[in-house]
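Batch job 17 of 40 flagged for manual review because the log was empty.
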Amino acid sequence: QAEEVTFVLRILIPSAPSCIMRILVGLRIAASLLAGAALAKEDTLVGEQGQAVFGCACKGGKGTHGYCGYHFHMGSQESKPWCRTKYGCGKPGLQGSWMHCDERGVERRLAPDGKFYTSKDFKDFYNKEGKDKWVTAKPYTERRLARNNKAYNVFEFRDYYVDAMGEEGWITEWIKAKPEARQAQDGKWWTWEEFRDFYGEKEAWKHWDGSTSSRSEL
């Protein structure tokens, strides 16, 4: 890979200092080649003490891209969710180690059709408008009830369980957890689907927004 990088740079970077754009292109290609070399390496499964481990742990909220997600940006258009990992575990990368992770633990948000979708779903369906649609949907992030009866989004839910249950254990809890419920005008606690079924798709949004959530106690 090093010889390929050198060859590309010699072709694309002339001696004339004015060719800045060609230099930038060369650097981008070089970075891509280096990244490809890193991705070709086998996973390294190591823990905090350098010991062999069964699987890696995501960095969580303290690191950029520390939670499981699609993390779309110029350097990443992955079709599978991934996260940055602790202790150099997983696949090597220019910005740090990483691994693919369970898509069942990825954040979802309500779309205009009243159903929950991932950022990849938004991107695939809305194309160029996908990012803006995803950002707009942030107030309608999916939440589920933990054992303390609080409604957490998927990242908060992981933080609540992961120390005791690990990366696989918290996913199991998330899958079986009940969806967030909010207190309606009749004093009863309804899920989003129950609001939608009762009020209809158009009216459900404002009633959901105006209802009391258990998150108000967080």
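Reviewer: the log was empty due to a logging misconfiguration, but the result itself is present. The radius of gyration is 22 Å. Unflagging and moving on to job 18.
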